[in-house]
Design goal:
By secondary structure, this protein is an all-alpha fold. The protein folds into 2 domains: 55 residues, Homeodomain-like (Arc Repressor Mutant, subunit A, Orthogonal Bundle); 163 residues, Tetracycline Repressor, domain 2. It is 80% helix and 0% strand.
Length: 246
């Protein structure tokens, strides 16, 4: 009786068709270009990178990059889009899971942790996502043409967070909630950028690349600050109303 290995010899695996091989090569080439572009954009920002820089890093001709992606803006957008789906899926899953399981312990700190922790987890375990996080931090702080990518990729997740904030802070007015969200995402994306600023200020006691330390502290800080801001604003409105009525 023939062994399994003998049978494999009798029926060798089919070779990939020329068309499939071509598609695979194209996909691998595009992924390589995106990997190199991502690393360069993370290090130098949008304005600090040229198509020629990416071509040199990826060891390809500039014409191939333009063929696949067009101009630098389209290449940058492709870099951002590539990982946004996975990042958003992880964040939505964490928010929904927290909402489902928290019960009476449902809190602003818990919601913020569910919103922020998935990004830090991805960055801790994958150099590509670490570069991606730095790019998102850069995009959030730059001009409107690039900030459009934030709305395109992240508004639907942000709306889930804002709805939870409304539920947890029922006495806050909408304006204060949006300011709270603004401060939250500002601190969050600045942390993703890993600027090194805290390194020099703290004499290297703290490291901007210490994502675990940031992930542990950020939700506590933001929840306390947003709650205090909303409570104080609500109290101020009550004082103003009382003063008007007397």
């Amino acid at each position: 009786m023939k062994s399994v290995d003998d049978l494999k010899d009798d029926f060798p695996a089919k070779k990939a068709s020329p068309r499939k091989a071509q598609v695979d090569r194209r996909r691998e080439s595009m992924e390589s270009i995106l990997d190199h572009a991502e690393a360069l954009f993370a290090e130098s920002g949008f304005n600090g990178v040229t198509i020629n820089d990416v071509a040199r890093s990826a060891s390809v001709d500039t014409g191939l990059i333009r063929y696949y992606f067009g101009d630098k803006s389209n290449l940058f957008e492709a870099v951002v889009d590539r990982r946004s789906g996975v990042a958003n899926e992880a964040r939505l899953k964490a928010l929904n899971e927290y909402r489902r399981t928290a019960g009476a312990s449902f809190s602003l700190e818990g919601v913020i942790r569910a919103f922020t922790a998935p990004a830090f987890d991805l960055m801790l375990n994958d150099e590509g996502y670490r570069n991606y996080g730095m790019i998102i931090g850069y995009v959030n702080a730059t001009h409107a043409d690039l900030r459009r990518l934030m709305s395109k990729n992240f508004d639907h997740v942000s709306e889930v967070l804002i709805e939870d904030m409304k539920r947890l802070l029922p006495d806050a007015n909408l304006e204060d909630l949006y300011w709270g969200y603004h401060f939250l995402t500002g601190a969050f994306t600045f942390s993703l950028a890993q600027t090194g600023r805290i390194d020099s200020l703290s004499g290297d006691m703290c490291k901007s690349e210490d994502l675990q330390a940031i992930s542990e502290r950020l939700p506590i800080t933001l929840a306390a600050g947003i709650r205090a801001m909303c409570d104080e604003r609500a109290a101020a409105r009550k004082r103003a109303a009382t003063s008007t009525n007397t």
